[in-house]
Amino acid sequence: MKYTVLSEFADLQDEKHVYGIGDVYPREGYTPTAERVDELSTGKNLLQKPLIQLVVVQEPKTVVEEVVETPETEEQPEEITEEPEAEEEQPKRKRGKKNTDD
Q1: What pLDDT was estimated at residue 69?
Q2: Is 46 contained in some domain?
Q3: Could you report the per-residue pLDDT of 26-75, keeping only the tens digit for each?
Q4: Could you tell me how far CA 79 lies from the centroid of its own chain?
Q5: In this structure, are residues 33 and 21 in contact, taking their beta carbons and an 8 Å threshold?
Q6: Which residues constitute the domain of residue 45?
Q7: Is residue 65 domain-resident?
Q8: pLDDT score for 102
Q9: Could you tell me if residue 74 is inside a domain?
Q10: Greater pLDDT, 100 or 8
Q11: Contact (Cβ atoms closer than 8 angstroms) between residue 31 and residue 53
């Protein structure tokens, strides 16, 4: 597990290695005992305060969609019906004048 350093300190059990605020504990190549991690993460140390804090890494959640299969029904092709085109109205013919002079 990895921890982040909350307060600068020299680890007396790790050749007096100095950790600065924000550093990763433990350093590469050093494996502390569970008791040492407990001392540093609580107030059970010479400075009587927590010096490191567990880094919690949240893994991204994977969303899985459930596919529900439904029984296939035989689908009829959609009928395409064309509406008959409206007949164009013929323009009214002008009637000639009736000859009333007969």
Answers
A1: 72
A2: yes
A3: 999 999 999 999 999 998 999 999 999 999 877 787 777 777 776 666 66
A4: 43
A5: no
A6: 3-54
A7: no
A8: 53
A9: no
A10: 8
A11: no
101: left (phi over 0), alpha (psi -120 to 50) or beta: alpha
Q: Does the structure show a pLDDT above 90 at 88? A: no
Question: For a pLDDT cut of 70, what percent of the chain falls above it?
Answer: 68
Residue type, 64: V
HEC string of the chain? CCEEECCCEEECCCCCEEECCCCEECCCCCCCCHHHHHHHHCCCCCCCCCCEEECCCCCCCCCCCCCCCCCCCCCCCCCCCCCCCCCCCCCCCCCCCCCCCC
Q: Does the residue 87 lie in any domain? A: no
Determine how many CB atoms are found less than 10 A away from the CB of residue 39.
18
